[in-house]
Amino acid sequence: MSAVLELAEVTVRRGQATLLDRVTWVVKDGERWVVLGANGAGKTTLLQVAAAQMHPTSGAVGVLGELIGTVDVFELRPRIGLTSAALAERIPRHEKVRDVVVSASYAVVGRWREDYDEVDHARAEALLREVRADRLADRTFGTLSEGSASGCRSPAP
After folding, report:
1. 44-63 per-position pLDDT tens digit
2. β-pair partners for 67
3. Of 102, 109, 106, nearest to 88 (Cα)?
4. Where are the beta strands (DSSP E) in the chain?
């Protein structure tokens, strides 16, 4: 099995605070992990690094065969599936569910001025059907319960 995620001695500091300290972690293709810890333990920071949303202060991060710092993360992010309560807080409450799914395919939070092709809309509709959330497509994201919203934020195919 090949690694889809490799962190080697990753440290993240912000000011005087150390958010992650020399974390080494390998996730192989087909593996599923759960990250548990107390508030402030660094779970969100760890996942932001793993999803190429944050660069480490030191150490190396490999995601899907690409080394962070040597790759355009805007090209890499659409290949990464991420969902979290922190991400949900960034989605505009007025955004329609179908538009959340369309923009998530490009690792974009919220529709602004970009245009999407019919194939993007068709794919979003198919994904909503697949997770049985198609009945929510015309609802605004802010009206969903947290349980309903969790099926509507998955950017990766």
Report:
1. 899 999 999 899 999 999 99
2. 62
3. 109
4. 3-14, 17-28, 58-63, 66-67
Residues 36, 39: Cα–Cα separation, whole Å: 10
Q: Say which CATH number the domain at 12 has.
A: 3.40.50.300
Do 103 and 69 reside in the same domain of the chain?
Answer: no
Host domain of residue 73: 3-79
pLDDT digits 0-9 by tens, 7-34:
999 999 999 999 999 999 999 999 989 8
- The CB density around residue 58, as the number of other CB atoms within 10 Å, is 11
pLDDT digits (tens, 9 = 90+) for 61-73: 999 999 999 999 9
Let me know how many helices (H) and strands (E) the chain has, helices first: 6, 4
- Tell me, what's the pLDDT at 105? 81
Question: Are the C-beta atoms of 19 and 44 separated by less than 8 Å?
Answer: no
Helix axes of 97-104 and 118-130: crossing angle, nearest 10 degrees: 110
